[in-house]
């Protein structure tokens, strides 16, 4: 019998760095990705091809991705990038990006603040992006934000999330990453949401993307796992946050996710000791607290 495994999508270089106030040198970003690539992580989201007016922190996306392109020893690692529109897709495709993430919101308030359009408009825009990406052999992951709560519109109903997730899968996303953008979910909320989603969508098409504002993210990961979810986004050192979700804290720390699953006998493929060193190094470089207790304990 094959041992059970989970797939970890490391989002630190993208979600983690998009919200850092001080300018992070491009060389530090590239070194972060290279160090993460030595830990056993197989999917490392590298950057976003977004408007530099909106997210100046990632305005060096071309340079970061160019450096990944020339990495000869990383052929078994995927370096996806976020793309909001055709302009972003064009930039990503020019750098041979093999996987992109489109990002929509279940709620209009966050959609307008984050990508400057309504949910309906975002669906229309994304359809064209997904179609063009897939015609070029680029696979597309779908991020859906505000699946529990929206900083502008309040609580989100699971039926709204279900309708959006189905539309995104129908348009050609291979998986939907369910974003607790505000980081306010509790395991009860996750169970309630997944009860509704899993009635119509296979667990293999869903992933968890939990921010940790209330310290519940790791419990949410465990809850989602118990309901069949096997893919989780996380960020080394617990970095992260969206500039358009005020007050939201970082993603669940990758160190904590690896520790949880390895102790349950579920494989992650990641070397926790090596990863903890990366978490300590990058949080020192950025002058931010290390968001992983286990990471601090190990280094
Ligand atoms: P807009 O202002 O409506 O777009 O923004 P526009 O088409 O009018 O363009 C404005 C300017 O941006 C123009 O430049 C464009 O050329 C340029 P100007 O003529 O003014 O010099 N531009 C671009 N430049 C580079 N790459 C591009 C691009 N597109 C336009 N792709 C837009 C609309 C979507 C572009 C903007 O709102 C945007 O870039 N938003 C990104 C916001 C973002 O990245 N948020 C964080 C990621 S989402 C997240 O963190 C949540 C997630 O983690 C899950 C969760 O936690 O819930 C995924
Ligand atoms: Mg996020």
Describe this structure in words.
With 299 residues, this protein is an alpha/beta fold. It has a single domain (7-298), classed as TIM Barrel. The chain has 12 helices and 11 strands. Strands 2-1-11-10-9-6-5-4-3 form a 9-stranded parallel beta sheet. Strands 7-8 form a two-stranded antiparallel sheet. α7 crosses α8 (187-197). The longest helix is centred in the middle third of the chain and has 17 residues, at 119-135. The mean pLDDT is 96. The site of 3-hydroxy-3-methylglutaryl-coenzyme A (HMG) has 26 residues, from α4, α5 and β6. Residues 15, 18, 48-51, 53-55, 82, 84-85, 87-88, 103, 114-116, 143, 145, 179, 181, 209, 211, 242, 244 line the site of 3-hydroxy-3-methylglutaryl-coenzyme A.
At the fold tier of CATH, the topology name is: TIM Barrel
Largest sheet: 9 strands, parallel
Structural domain count: 1
Total strands: the figure is 11
Radius of gyration: 17 Å
Q: Which structural class fits the helix and strand makeup?
A: alpha/beta
Overall pLDDT level: 96
**SSE string, helix = H, strand = E?**
EHHEEHEHEHHEEEHEHEHEHHH
């Amino acid at each position: 019998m094959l041992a059970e495994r989970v797939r970890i999508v490391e989002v630190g270089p993208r979600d983690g760095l998009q919200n850092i106030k001080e300018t992070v040198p491009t060389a530090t970003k590239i070194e972060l990705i290279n160090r993460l690539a030595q830990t056993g992580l197989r999917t490392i989201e590298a950057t976003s091809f977004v408007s530099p007016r909106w997210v100046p922190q990632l305005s060096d996306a071309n340079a970061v991705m160019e450096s990944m392109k020339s990495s000869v020893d990383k052929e078994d690692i995927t370096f996806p990038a976020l793309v909001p529109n055709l302009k972003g897709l064009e930039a990503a495709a020019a750098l041979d990006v093999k996987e992109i993430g489109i990002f929509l919101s279940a709620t209009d308030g966050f959609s307008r603040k984050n990508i400057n359009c309504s949910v309906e408009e975002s669906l229309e825009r994304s359809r064209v992006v997904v179609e063009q990406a897939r015609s070029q052999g680029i696979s597309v992951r779908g991020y859906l934000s505000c699946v529990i709560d929206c900083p502008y519109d309040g609580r989100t109903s699971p039926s709204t999330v279900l309708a959006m997730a189905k539309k995104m899968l129908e348009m050609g996303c291979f998986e939907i990453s369910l974003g607790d953008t505000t980081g306010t979910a509790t395991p009860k909320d996750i169970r309630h949401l997944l009860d509704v989603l899993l009635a119509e969508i296979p667990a293999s098409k869903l992933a968890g993307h939990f921010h940790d504002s209330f310290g519940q993210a790791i419990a949410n990961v465990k809850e989602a796992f118990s309901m069949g979810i096997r893919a989780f986004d996380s960020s080394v050192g617990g970095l992260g946050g969206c500039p358009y979700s005020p007050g939201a804290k970082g993603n669940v720390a990758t160190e904590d996710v690896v520790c949880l699953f390895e102790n349950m006998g579920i494989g992650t493929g990641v070397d926790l000791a090596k990863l903890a060193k990366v978490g300590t190094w990058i949080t020192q470089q950025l002058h931010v607290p290390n968001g992983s207790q286990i990471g601090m304990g190990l280094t």
